[in-house]
Amino acid sequence: MQIKVLTTPITQVSCNTLIINLFEESTILDKATGMIDKALHGHINTLISEQPDCGKYGEITIIHTWGAIGAKHIMVLGMGKKTELTTDKICALSAIAMRTAQKRHAKSVATMISALDTERYDLQTTTEAIVEGAILGTYQFNYYKTNQPTPDSIEKFIIIENKAEKKAIITKGIQRAEIIGESVNLARDLVNHPAIYMTPTQMALHAQEIAEQNNLEILILEKADMEKENMHALLSVAKGSFQPPKMIVLKYIGDASNHHFTAFVGKGVTFDSGGISIKPSLNMNEMKSDMAGGATVLGTMLGIGKLKPKINILGIIPCTENMPSGHAYKPGDVISSMSGKTIEIITTDAEGRLILADAITYAQQLGATQIIDIATLTGACVVALGNIASGLVSNNKDLCSQVLAASVSTGEKMWEMPNFAEYKEQIKSDIADLKNSGGRMAGTITAGLFIAQFVNDIPWVHIDIAGTADSNKNSGYNVKGGTGVGVRTLIQLAQNMGTK
Q1: Which of 233, 235, 241 is nearest to 325 (CA)?
Q2: Is residue 187 part of a domain?
Q3: Strand 390-394 relative to strand 460-464, pairing
Q4: Which of 46, 70, 212, 383 has its CA 20 to 30 A from that of 225?
Q5: Number of domains, the chain
Q6: Do 165 and 298 share a structural domain?
Q7: What is the dihedral of CA 395, 399, 402, 403, to 10 degrees?
Q8: Strands in 224-323 per DSSP E
């Protein structure tokens, strides 16, 4: 989709669909909309008087122009109450409008920024929200469809701004939004591919491509390398699978004068059967998305490589399948880890925290001074927060506040869980240093605190995206399938850190 800015008068812009933003209870049209209304002989004012709900959030009304202006159709997009408008809502509304235009086979769509409340949000931020919504909302995953009609796609998206002096700001917003959109959609692609394709080896190949295109350093640890590093927790999970495990390390240096590194660690279980503690067959197909944390880190590193914040980042992704076989690790086993700590296996379906334990230990060996890990870790998080918010567990209020602030600015909802010392009692083992499951109660918290035992004393935040990594329907800027959740937050966090 080509995205550009035009300073052409609104009535002369040639396109299939022109989006008009209308706030709830609006009675006075802004100047640009008034010009269109005049050209359409008052149809927009008539619509407002006869259908007063047309300005409510997400409402869409189509008006045919019959050649009165350059656009073939007008899409009146209800923005809701002006006092309740946020950049997240702007992004979602843009996605809804663009998806509607896509269904109507529009090849070119235009919109205006002038009617939005740019006093609350600067012009670049508003532009970014509109363009991100357009890119994310029209995402399609069609890799495996055959003998299908060519999917509808919008070829041109036009932002209209009559003041030429604002064009450079809007263009800057477009450029950043295109990078963010590409990064999120990469993560979505990785999650949506089936596990027969998206193996640990394939994840590593994608990482190599990202590194080559963005001048990032890359290191791929093979099974033999992991054995030398005593990564027995990761290797235990990998034992049941025919697919070899990979430990992916991407390094971005944005500030060579600074020796501090922030590590983004993503869980990369490319298929999770549960292992010997096998999952029910119902919906097991969805477990191809258990590498969504790793996909998020890859998407984030793509965006960071293009945006180049002044900060040093390690992207670390432990990748493996979790399968049952005669070679698989078993409930009741005691395994070691790279840190030297021993772990009693209560269930082989609590594998994500095991591979993250070794990855986090390795991150510190590579020089990480603070760590954010992201993982589809626990069903308990889905029970606690549903598919609305991701759960956080942290040992550092400052770093956690930075993650939450970044999530607020992107609209990716996150919620910090308590980490009281009493919860640690649930993961104490009678025969080892730890056990890998504390039971059903407070499952999200105890899983996070298990990971914390391998962090030592550096700042750390764990993000559980089990409920938010995929969607079962189109909603706002999320479409059915992988959401790419966390990419926008981690990129924003990196940029915020880089401006300190």
Answers
A1: 241
A2: no
A3: antiparallel
A4: 212
A5: 2
A6: no
A7: -60
A8: 246-253, 261-266, 268-272, 312-322
Catalytic residues: 279, 353
Q: Are residues 93 and 201 in the same domain?
A: no
Q: How far apart (Å, rounded) are the C-alpha atoms in residues 189 and 191?
A: 5
| Burial class for 148, CB neighbours closer than 10 Å (0-12, 13-18, 19+) | exposed
Instruction: List 264's β-bridge partners, or say none.
Output: 315, 372
Q: Are residues 176 and 205 in the same domain?
A: no
CATH number of the domain that residue 48 is part of = 3.40.220.10
Q: How confident is the model at residue 164 (pLDDT cuts 50, 70, 90)?
A: confident
If asked whether residues 176 and 199 sit together in one domain, one would say: no
Q: Considering only CA atoms, which of 469, 420, 488, 429 is closest in space to residue 448?
A: 420
Please report which residue ranges of 267-378 form alpha helices under DSSP H.
Answer: 292-307, 352-365
Q: How far is residue 411's CA from residue 182's CA, in Å, rounded to a whole number?
A: 18
26 pLDDT band, cuts 50/70/90, is: confident
Domain that holds residue 400: 193-498
Tens of pLDDT, residues 45-96: 999 989 989 999 999 999 999 999 999 999 999 999 988 999 999 999 999 9
Confidence band (pLDDT; 50, 70, 90) for 149?
A: low
Written as six digits, the tokens of 392 are 């956080």
Q: Tell me, yes or no, if the pTM score tops 0.85.
A: yes
CB 270 within 8 A of CB 288: yes
Q: Which of these three, 129, 154, 181, is where a domain ends?
A: 181
Starting at the edge strand found earlier in the chain, the sheet holding 108-112 runs 2-6, 156-160, 108-112, 15-22, 71-78, 60-64
Cα 221 from chain centroid (whole Å): 26
User: Which domain CATH number covers 316?
Assistant: 3.40.630.10
pLDDT at 113: 85
Q: What is the mean pLDDT of residues 457-485?
A: 96
